[in-house]
Write a structure and sequence with these properties.
62 residues, alpha+beta, two-stranded antiparallel sheet, 2 strands
Length: 62
């Protein structure tokens, strides 16, 4: 019984972690797209460096 609870807790933890990473990646991508569009509307050239799954990124409008 204790083993089943530990397995369930482990699986739940993994699923929640994957869900949180996916959510952060999704919203970062939306933010990047909005920043790029705003930069292009002002006549600038977007400079973008993205990390894995867009969890970290660097954006500059030149």
């Amino acid at each position: 019984m204790k083993t089943k609870l530990m397995v369930f807790t482990g699986i739940l933890t993994i699923l929640l972690t994957i869900s949180l990473i996916g959510t952060k990646s999704f919203f970062n991508q939306r933010e990047i797209n909005a920043a790029k569009a705003g930069c292009e509307q002002t006549g600038g050239q977007p400079v973008l460096e993205e990390g894995f799954l867009t969890l970290n990124y660097y954006f500059q409008c030149e």
